């Protein structure tokens, strides 16, 4: 879709992303067709950008996108994990598989994976493990919110399948 055809209510948000990223990702142009959904997502993204740390957030995005089978989001999160979170390639792969070398981040990623795989039905032991790693209940709530936010874009991109505009990543089976 041509950006000139987008609803006026989406343009300020889309313009802010374009300025921040340096280009307009295809996913955002497609998502901006609904100002209600797009602006709500952008607000959630902005708020959750203050949750946890960037390496943990990007790692959660990677594992959730892997579980949800969203190839578009895997390209985006692999790119941001490398360039913004400064995660090395082996850590990006590890995050896609639901782990990290840092024990605290590993606990958050494992918990996020269990939340998405089990639709929130985690065990008491799962919850205790993330708490034992040093996360408060507020942090656990943030992990759950991140899982939900990343799932939203995963589902959107799996439905609309925008053309990929970030570097391709190998399928999980080959890593």
Order of helices and strands: HHHHHHHHH
Compute the gyration radius: what is it?
16 Å
Q: Please state the average pLDDT score.
A: 95
Helix content: 55-70%
Structural class of the helix and strand makeup?
A: mainly alpha
Number of helices: 9
Number of strands: 0
Low-confidence stretches: none
Q: How many domains is the backbone divided into? A: 2
Cα(first) to Cα(last) distance is 34 Å
Strand content: under 5%
The CATH topology assignment of the largest domain is: AhpD-like
CATH class of the largest domain: Mainly Alpha
> Major sheet: size, sense and barrel closure?
none
* CATH homologous superfamily classification of the largest domain: AhpD-like
CATH architecture of the largest domain: Up-down Bundle
Query: Tell me, what's the shape?
Result: globular
Task: Report on this structure.
The protein is an all-alpha fold and 175 residues long. It has two domains: 8-48, no CATH class; 54-169, AhpD-like (Up-down Bundle), CATH 1.20.1290. The protein is 65% helix and 0% strand. Residues 38-101 form the Carboxymuconolactone decarboxylase-like domain. It comes from Caballeronia arvi. This is Peroxidase-like protein.
Keywords:
175 residues, mainly alpha, AhpD-like, 65% helix, peroxiredoxin activity, Uncharacterised_peroxidase-rel
């Amino acid at each position: 879709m041509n950006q000139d055809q987008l609803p006026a209510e989406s343009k300020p948000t889309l313009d802010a992303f374009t300025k921040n990223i340096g280009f307009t990702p295809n996913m955002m142009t497609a998502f901006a067709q609904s100002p209600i959904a797009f602006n709500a997502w952008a607000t959630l993204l902005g708020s959750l950008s203050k949750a946890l740390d960037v390496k943990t957030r990007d790692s959660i995005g990677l594992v959730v996108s892997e579980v949800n089978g969203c190839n578009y989001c895997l390209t985006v999160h692999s790119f941001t994990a490398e360039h913004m979170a400064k995660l090395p390639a082996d850590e990006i792969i590890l995050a896609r598989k639901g782990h990290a070398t840092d024990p605290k981040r590993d606990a958050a990623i494992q918990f996020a994976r269990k939340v998405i795989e089990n639709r929130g039905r985690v065990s008491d032991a799962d919850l205790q493990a993330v708490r034992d790693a040093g996360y408060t209940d507020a942090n656990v709530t943030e992990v759950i919110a991140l899982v939900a936010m990343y799932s939203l874009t995963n589902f959107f991109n799996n439905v609309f399948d925008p053309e990929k505009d970030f570097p391709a990543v190998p399928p999980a089976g080959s890593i």
